[in-house]
Amino acid sequence: FFFSATPREAFCFFREMEAIQRQTLQLFMAKPCMSSEEAKAQFQTISRGRVSFENTKDAINERIRGMKLEIRRTTWDLNGETYWVLATSRGIENVDIGTTLDPKEISFVKHMIQKIIKKNGKLTVPAALAMSDYPKDARISSQASQQVLRYLQHEKILYVKEKKNKKSKDLVVIGPRGQLEIFDIINGDENATKCFVCSHHCVYGYTCSNAGCGKRLHLHCFQRLGRSGRDVKCSQGCREVFAPKELQNENAAEGDEGGSDEEEEPEDMDEEQ
Ligand SMILES: [Zn+2]
Ligand SMILES: [Zn+2]
């Protein structure tokens, strides 16, 4: 809407809103993904404590729901922290606000996301861009694939996590906004597993170390269960104790590709905003 509306329509839409709501929505349009601390600080500057964020957010959502937009909170699997996101519920085809992905590029993106899920959320950039791994209808030029990746980074759908040393490779990971925007793709993927505690999809998390169990657990669910200092055990019928140190190493091995030497832990993701 914001990009297809005439200037007059946009002017009327914003004029009808209260100043604090309008400024908050404009904030989210400029920054569609913020850590909850940043969102709180920015909102405090706008509202000066006159109204609550919850009420303002609800009032904005009331107005933008018809455009299939919504301000939502999400917990990022990768670091267990919460973010506020201006999310669309129109599928990946319509994430392209302001840019147009053609059908081949959309197919490329869907296949790349499937590859990321298959790799437990960590795919190296060279693997993400290796066209020979993609079906014919999803192959695009190397220049186009790099543009699409940059665009998805800009939209905070995906992040590129830079390599730590010369031996390792840059990784493509699903960002907090991506978790919401591509939920349908993740949901429909046969390789996507659910967290046994909260039943939500677990792109990033721990895997039970009991061979043959394979249950997955979010970092934030692990932290919540372990808060009292008790052991965190797997579900009924397994009861294996989740031991974070080992499991982090296991996670690192899963992000590994082609024998490269990576030391990746879910907690140390850089939070670029
Ligand atoms: Zn969970
Ligand atoms: Zn288990």
From TrEMBL:
Entry's Gene Ontology molecular function annotations: ubiquitin protein ligase activity; zinc ion binding
Biased composition (Acidic residues): 253-273
Keyword Mitochondrion: no
EC number: 2.3.2.27
Catalytic reaction annotation: S-ubiquitinyl-[E2 ubiquitin-conjugating enzyme]-L-cysteine + [acceptor protein]-L-lysine = [E2 ubiquitin-conjugating enzyme]-L-cysteine + N(6)-ubiquitinyl-[acceptor protein]-L-lysine
One annotated Gene Ontology cellular component of this protein: Smc5-Smc6 complex
Stored PANTHER family: NON-SMC ELEMENT 1-RELATED, NON-STRUCTURAL MAINTENANCE OF CHROMOSOMES ELEMENT 1 HOMOLOG
Quaternary structure and partners: Component of the Smc5-Smc6 complex.
Official protein name in the record: Non-structural maintenance of chromosomes element 1 homolog
